[in-house]
User: Fold these one by one.
Assistant:
Number 1:
Amino acid sequence: MIRKTVANVEEALQGVKDGMTFMLGGFGLCGIPENAIAHLVKMGVKDLTCISNNAGVDDFGLGLLLHKRQIKKMISSYVGENDEFERQMLSGELEVELTPQGTLAEKCRAAQAGFPAFYTPAGYGTEVAEGKETREFNGKMYVLEKAFKADFSFVKAWKGDEAGNLIFKGTARNFNPAMCGAAGITVAEVEELVPAGELDPNQIHVPGIFVQRIFQGKNYEKRIEQLTVRKSN
Amino acid sequence: MLDKNGIAKRIAKEVKDGYYVNLGIGIPTLVANFVRDDISVEFQSENGVLGMGPFPFEGEEDADIINAGKQTITTLPGASFFDSVTSFGMIRGQHVDLTILGAMEVAENGDIANWKIPGKMVKGMGGAMDLVASAENIIVAMMHTNREGESKLLKKCTLPLTGVGCVKKIVTNLAVLDVTPEGFKLLEKAPGVSVEEIVKATEGNLIVEGDIPEMDI
């Protein structure tokens, strides 16, 4: 067994520097690497490029890094729900590259799986396809999209083991699996870290080969963005 | 004239037994409330769930189980969770039978715009570009006119496009229309709405042939 465990978030984030490109898992605030984000804020690294489906909310998630002006560029599919983000974007302080959600996921997976680029129909005929190569297959038009390149991936899982194997819960899985192994170093934080052998190999969502560092996260807030409930009878 | 629930109720009639359906944010989300009980349908949400159920009871919400609108949800028996790559594989690979989404503008050739107003609003396209580029069966749910009373069914979209030539059917507060090579074809009018009102509210080419029946909802 190859051990991937590190003692804490400080050790997990060693080597993080100004100007780097990060992938961060999560959809809205669901399944985001809360510990890694909190530590990036604490480290004060700046001029970051962040690849993440969303940009957090004003006072949580990536919103915390935006608030401290640590992010130079965001690559996302949906950035509503964040006033500070909107302000920085409209004033030109923040560079934003909007990418269709399925394309964003596939650009991560392509990096993970060793594809330099792929064709997708998403965005053909729109401003997203401007300047990109297009090609017809079977009578339909496609856009050539390139794999992402990133220095670190920060992902969050429900359970993990010492070998770096990961299991996710519910819709907190989202972009996390595709980002594993898609950057130079993948850092996984988990709610529950167990010794190797305790997780059923049949149930692993991400094999440990895609993870370089794993640590037990702390104080998960797991904030709900839109609480919608039914009244019980 | 229909309200948002009325539009959702009419669209629900387009949902057939055995369909996997992706519902967008807004009016489309309401469609789930009106689908017949005697047919089997599964709702997909692109953040990674198939077999979405109703909102949870108070106190039973789980931060790890949400839909693409970031709302807390439940799952029904037979549901599954998956990652974003798999989710968009379902969409891009045309395994989802019906996509229902909102729009700011639709053009008579089926172009749709719903993600950006230059200089004013840029929330992003989310999964909309992937959905409209791949879905065979797309229904747009929207109001016929905007807040200023201007038509949203146009000859040509003025806003940045989400997809080209992809919309097949539109259900508005005034009418049900098909998008045909010749333009918008009026199929049904909403209760209490005249054909003249629909003609007046439609900027793009509108085809009206014979008597137009009233929606049965």
Number 2:
Amino acid sequence: MYTASKAALATLVLGLVATAAVRAQGVNGSITATATVQSPITVTGAQNLAFGNVFPGVAKTIAYSDATNGGRFDVTGQGSAAVTYSFTLPTNLTSSGNNLPIGSWTGYLNTANSTAGGSAITPSATPAGATLSAGGALYVFVGATVTPPSNLPAGSYTGTVTLTVSY
Amino acid sequence: MKRTGLSLALLWGAAPLAGQGVVIAPHAVFMDARTRSGAVLLYNPNTEPVEVAISFFFGYPATDSAGIIVVRTVEHPDSTSPSAASWIQAFPRRLTVPPLERQTIRLLASPPPGLADGEYWARLVISAKGGQLPVTGVADTAKVRVGLTLEVRTIIGVFYRKGAVHTGISLSGLRTAVVGDSLAVWARLTQQGNAAYIGSAHAALVDSTGKTLAEMKAPIGVYYTMEPRYALPIGALAPGRYRLRLDLSTAREDLAPELVLPSPPVRDSVEVRVP
């Protein structure tokens, strides 16, 4: 991806320089356009971990392999770069002071956007290491289980899942 | 010639995303005692605003017992640690990046008087949080609806250089083991000089004719001593004797050459016997 981007960028830069040169032919002067290319890193929460409706007294699990509802983070950076990742996970989702327990976190790490061919992980706060693909990609999938008590009041329960990636 | 800093790569081909997070460039910031400043560009490729918070801490890459590279955090660095975390500031520290727009974070160093020549390190934490995700579920029938917000924290290195800085690396203890369809490679790497060794590791498995059968290349940063583990996919290698070569150099494709401290390449090799 970055190779293509760099190639396209180089074309753009060359285009700028070429344009400047062409314009310079009509006047007695010239300018030089330069660009500094900086390699970026991107960590994106690409897909929400979506439980939808849940019912008091009925636990609900969303597997990391659930293509529609499983959570997914995407990491892009320099090819083959080592990164450290860790999670900050809620133990409860909250609504107006009420708690909905969430746990049994599951995860999967892959250099392709797939839950096959990679490694299962246990999301936790303990930093772990991973390596981006040769193309500079890493995908992190997460799933969990919510366990609504039978007396859980109705409401909209929310929480935050945080992925920390150190480059 | 004035050099215009354009991070066009950030904008190139960036289609709007529904996700949460920002593109960050560069992935390592180098500052010096002359300007005492640096900049990080954030670009929001998403369709929603992203709230960003900036902070610093002191840490550096190291390896765990398995040879996995992890960032070691030092919450209370002592006076001998080359920490710049307490005297580099970011402006602004909180901001909102609108969709498809970019913002610049300025870094300013205020080192203590009498700072010795050398390189000082910090880790820059960029926390990005999108707007609250819509709580999914059908309101008419559901008693309980659930929504989870995703937040991402990206940590990059910050390097402050004062005076004469130089780096190097020593390589020892190179060893290998066939593990499944891979060749595991370990080596002990020790940074030398007064600056981190920023470079690349290139491992290649060759046969008796010198033909390369498998190889890998990875960026590496050695701040003290580390023993990383690399894996080369070798598949079903025929029994015989091979040679594993490991090269370390300061060549980096992802960093501007003027930012990388040069150092002579370091090489070693070891025989690999496949029974």
Number 3:
Amino acid sequence: MTRLAVPKTYKLYIGGKFPRSESGRTYEITGAGGDFLANAAQASRKDARDAVVAARSALKGWSAATAYNRGQVLYRIAELLEGRRAQFVDELVRSEGLTERRAAAVIDTAIDRWVWFAGWADKFAQVLGNGNPVAGPYFNLSVPEPTGVVAVIAPQAGEGHSLTGFVSAVAPALVSGNTVVVVASRSAPLSAISLSEVLATSDVPPGVVNVLTGSPAEIAPWLASHADVNAIDLVGAGALDWVQLQIDAAETLKRVLQPEDGPGAPAPTLARISAFTETKTVWHTKGLL
Amino acid sequence: MSFLDYAPAPESRAILSLRPSYGLFVDGEFVDGNGPAFTTISPATEEGLTEIATADDADVDRAVAAARKAYDRVWSKLSGSDRGKYLFRIARLVQERARELAVAETLNNGKPIKESRDVDIPLVAAWFFYYAGWADKLDHAGLGPDPRPLGVAGQIIPWNFPLLMLAWKIAPALASGNTVVLKPAETTPLTALLFAEILQQADLPPGVVNIVTGPGATGQALVRHPDVDKIAFTGSTAVGREIARATAGTRKRLTLELGGKAANIVFDDAPIDQAIEGVVNGIFYNQGHVCCAGSRLLVQENVHDDVVERLKQRLTTLRLGDPLDKNTDIGAVNSAEQLERIRELTAAGEEEGATRWSPPCVLPDAGFWFAPTIFTGVQTSSRIAREEIFGPVLSILTFRTPQEAIAKANNTPYGLSAGIWSDKGSRVLAVADELRAGVVWTNTFNRFDPASPFGGYKESGYGREGGKQGLSAYLAPAGGIR
């Protein structure tokens, strides 16, 4: 006799907790073959605003953590993911319809991306920053600092988008000390929520990553116009009215990355780390001897 | 005559010979504009200086076409070292004609000759000299090997540092291999047109730099032009927002250097005499027409009275008057419109309960003038503590602890600059870390250098000008534009 499985309720991830949508709404997630997989929470405007509050509260601590510490915390995510490979393979097979072999390649890539970005945490400032030889008695130094709260519309299509695409959009923002509100893949949100469970049980402080599931078309405008969001990554917003989102974002002069298409988007680059940093230049006056 | 009075010492205007009228500078030549010509004036006297052309949409189109042609056929094919040589030539020509440019800048802008002569124009030359050297070293700009220029850059600059802002825009754009259509501010086109003559003397290929004069509508035409690859704008946050909206959804790359409401923080252990000089320089330099001006003075409560008293004493020694006089500290406000805005906001400051003070000061009859003004007892909620005044007006607030100073300094949607005055090195470093501002000056203020990146956090805009970082505003990695 086969054992009756215990299915999981997939919820949102806000401020280190797993609430249902305050709206009480859910929507049906189906597999590649149309079979029922789960009822995911359908986040509302209020959920998005709660997530921004959580991200703002977490910003001070995360951005003030030492670069070495942030690197270790991000690396720890890779360690925990490694131990839960089977679960993610299973979810990818069911939700994205991948073969087991391809799903395994996706999770391997996702883990390796965390490792790659973790390694940048205590190096990007050395590569992007510099001392400046100004004409005067000043010690002048430029360093990149995190932009603040970053909203991300995660990739919505392409093989492995629900996990590798998600990780590749979120991780670079975290490297410099930003906190993130991310809208997961609408069609395949399960990996993002399971990844949230990994984040919750690793050393990532609550509120540093907040994950919303539901309709990006519904949630994104609230994030784009939210005055306490400093930047918005529209990488997965290609199918939305992203031009309007960019126009909304202009009201508070948010930093904006436009949508990216193609399999494997976004690629892991230093440019994605620097896109959500601000260069601070300090002129220290030297004394007279 | 007291010992503080000086005999007039006006800089001679003889070095400058203006033409009766200037056209647009398109494809290497001065051409007529389709719009109605207008007279550009000296804000110190309201006398007319010369006639300036107005570029309409068709003129802007012509300028962009010239820039595109120059990009495709000449500039993008030139070696980096040759681009650099042109920029070195320009730097040298600016130095050779420095006094003439300084006189023109002071006439058209109203700023004191000592500032245009000793700060603006030397920095213009320095900017071209600095970026000239980058032109054949772009592999080291931090974008990987063989980075690509963007194409045609549309650049719109303000009236507060007319030629310096031109240099901040044009030097990195040309060094990176782009061609340029630049629109000077409506009220200060003069030095940009003299600069066009310098480009002719430098034998810069036609179309590499085009200059279109006119009002805001000329700038809008440039922003909307479909064949422009990049917009760089310095000016108000309100216009910056409009430009961000107008370029949304396009492939145009955008950098914005916008407004500010900088905190200048004076701790009780600061070298007070130096701090007073820095505070004065921070807000009264260039009549306060400085986006990074230290317009909010945060003084530690226990030294507030002493600082305010010394500040008042110092302000009574400032000389306001003829900008061409070598002894003048405070020149003219650039336009009637700006003067009106300063008057409106200072009136609001009084209405909201702050105490206003200005030194005894005789304002000239003609022209646009505003006496240096300080407000004490300012609330953080007051308009004069929140809005950019862009004039010689200082709002003074107090704090008790470093944490309070940091919180008040950061309590603004702007994030361009900040100042810290303290003799305690460890405190300076810790406070500098916490300030959300793109440029922080410690025990100094309003320093600029081509090697030093400048630009804001939050609603002060995005992108950096100056330094290695300034190049990435005009380059894309070899793999393509992201």
